[in-house]
Amino acid sequence: MRVYLDLLRAPWAARLLGGTLLGRLPNGMGVLAIVLFTRAAGGDYVLGGVLSAVHALAAGAGQPVLGRLMDRLGQPRILLPSALLAGLGFVLFALTGISSTPLAVFTVALAGFFTPPLEPGLRALWPEVLDRPAQVQAAYAMDAATQELIFTLGPVLVFVSGLLSGTAPLYAAALLGLAGTLVVITSRPSRDWRGAVRAAHWAGALRSRGLVVLASSLGFIGLSLGVFTVAMAAYAEVRGEPGAAGWLVAVNALGALTGGLVYGSRVWPGEPERRVAPLLAGLTVGYALLMLTPSIPVMVLLSYLSGVFLAPTLGCVFGLVERLAPVGTVTEAFAWIVAFMTVGTSAGSVLAGWLHEEVGNRAAFSGAALGGLAAVALCVLGGPWLRARRDLEAV
């Protein structure tokens, strides 16, 4: 742990990481808060699922747009308005409810699209805040590992705040997003950071073929994550223990946290692009083992193991993004990774539900393994592009 303690002692590192995690808590609260509020207001699960999907897809669409603007205009000018508009979306949804479906769709889309791009913003700042490349790689791994806390604490905050009122989780999401954003943008690194001069090209970060390969691969991993959550909930229900679903998902997050911290605690030999496919393969094997659908005690172990390679994979990918992104597009590049994963997760949730209903629970888990296989295949086939260096200079 000395690696992480030294990293967090670097000026501004702990503040930036803590502020980003605080500001991203709404990411772990949004889906559940929207569904529970919809149910409390008299809507059914279909409407709740549609509204949560709209929120997620809007966030996926908004991140690259906001990331590109942040590369051009700096962080505070984009992060603060984004946090205010996202919070406004949550507040309007709480005030107007579901009496008008088009209005409800608009409010959750507003909250999603303007989700402040704190995640890509932090990853753009790590090379500026930390002195050594090894520290930057450890920061990416720690970043990937600690984001599991968002999806563990987020639902807890929804239930705790929900004890006050049905609208309290939505107000809490608005306030937490703004609070975390303020912590970040009032720091000197965030105020001073500016993207490099970029080429005037419509494709932006996606001019890099290697980045397209990475983003597409992470999209399939997002699909696996979406499948995992829904399939695990269905598994617990089939086993007659629906309450076990939360524990099984939390154990998976613990596995990811463990794997990420171990991965980032040492310097790995060789280039990161050579580690991506093996890490994805390890992740795929973990998902494939879930198809055994054993007893709940064994499933707890398999759920933990299926998470171990997730954060190391993300940490390795984050280290590659900065190398592959065209000059002046680093924040946008990280935002595309987030966007592809978000869309993939939404698609995975739908796929898992369909597979479970039509074929069965074991087939639902197969969707996670297939997503991993597709990610491995993309990285193997796109290996030459991943080995390229940032040669798309500004013109």
Report Rg: 20 Å
What does the overall shape look like? Answer: globular
CATH class of the largest domain: Mainly Alpha
State the share of residues found in helices, binned by percent.
over 70%
Under the CATH scheme, the architecture of the largest domain is Up-down Bundle
Q: What's the rounded overall pLDDT mean?
A: 88
CATH homology superfamily of the largest domain: MFS general substrate transporter like domains
Order of helices and strands: HHHHHHHHHHHHHHHHHH
What is the makeup of the main sheet?
none
Query: How many DSSP H or I helices?
Result: 18
Uncertain ranges: 390-395
The CATH topology of the largest domain is given as Growth Hormone, Chain: A
| First-to-last CA distance | 43 Å
Total number of strands: 0
Structure report:
The protein has 395 residues and is mainly alpha-helical. The protein folds into two domains: 1-137 and 147-195, MFS general substrate transporter like domains (Growth Hormone, Chain: A, Up-down Bundle); 199-395, MFS general substrate transporter like domains (Growth Hormone, Chain: A, Up-down Bundle), CATH 1.20.1250.20. The chain has helices at 2-9, 13-40, 45-73, 76-96, 101-113, 118-129, 133-146, 148-162, 168-185, 188-192, 209-238, 244-264, 273-289, 296-308, 310-324, 330-358, 361-381, 383-386.
